Amino acid sequence: MNKVYQSAVDAVADIQDGATLMVGGFGLCGIPENLILALRDKGVKDLTVISNNCGVDDWGLGLLLQNRQIKKMISSYVGENKEFERQFLSGELEVELVPQGTLAERCRAGGAGIPAFFTPAGVGTPVAEGKETRVIDGKEYILEKALKADFSLVKAFRADEMGNLIYRKTTQNFNPMMATAGAITIAEVEEIVPVGTLDPDFIHTPSVYVQRVVQGSFEKRIERRTVRQG
């Protein structure tokens, strides 16, 4: 089956207001930037977005935030976005902060069909408020529920026409587990190759999890430039 779409616009055409999205990436590394731009131009609103962070003020998910398209963020790190801070403090944006490892595992659990799991992360902090706790082998844990999405938007290095995906380096932090947890997974890639070209031993996300593939062009941004003082 050829799952290749001709453009990011076509790939997100059926994403409607109020959808829940998982968006891969770590900082500005491995973000599906063309799909995000297509969503901005489409103008869908009231989105619930599950992502490690919310981009920066002028790139990535920050563009949707600027455009008032995001209703709720489920995130781990949000410190690089002044507009995020402003909307949160003014009550315009609903935010659920999740420890980073817990966020990754909640996404992985959603894709694996595991409804919930116990973790020590967050015990004794506001993260634990309202959640079931249990003592196991003398240690306290809190129950965290799995996350799923209507659509998962991920970025991979290479795909074949069936949707088998290969990632590179830091882009493996959130993209692989999010690819499994969306009812519809849309993969934006740097290169699409014919079926049979990819070595099965090096495929990170099998095609069974991927419904759409689109090739994009990418801007390699640096989130925060630091230099060593001479």
TrEMBL record:
Keywords in alphabetical order: Transferase
UniProt entry tagged with the keyword Transmembrane: no
Domain of life: Bacteria
Signal peptide region: none
GO terms assigned for molecular function: CoA-transferase activity
Cross-referenced SUPFAM superfamilies: NagB/RpiA/CoA transferase-like
InterPro entries linked to this entry: 3-oxoacid_CoA-transf_A, CoA_trans_fam_I, CoA_transf_BS, NagB/RpiA_transferase-like
PANTHER family referenced in this protein's UniProt entry, alphabetically: ACETATE COA-TRANSFERASE SUBUNIT ALPHA, KETOACID-COENZYME A TRANSFERASE
NCBIfam families for the chain: pcaI_scoA_fam (TIGR02429)
Similarity field: Belongs to the 3-oxoacid CoA-transferase subunit A family.
Protein name (Swiss-Prot/TrEMBL): Succinyl-CoA:3-ketoacid-CoA transferase
Organism: Tumebacillus flagellatus
Lineage: Bacteria, Bacillati, Bacillota, Bacilli, Bacillales
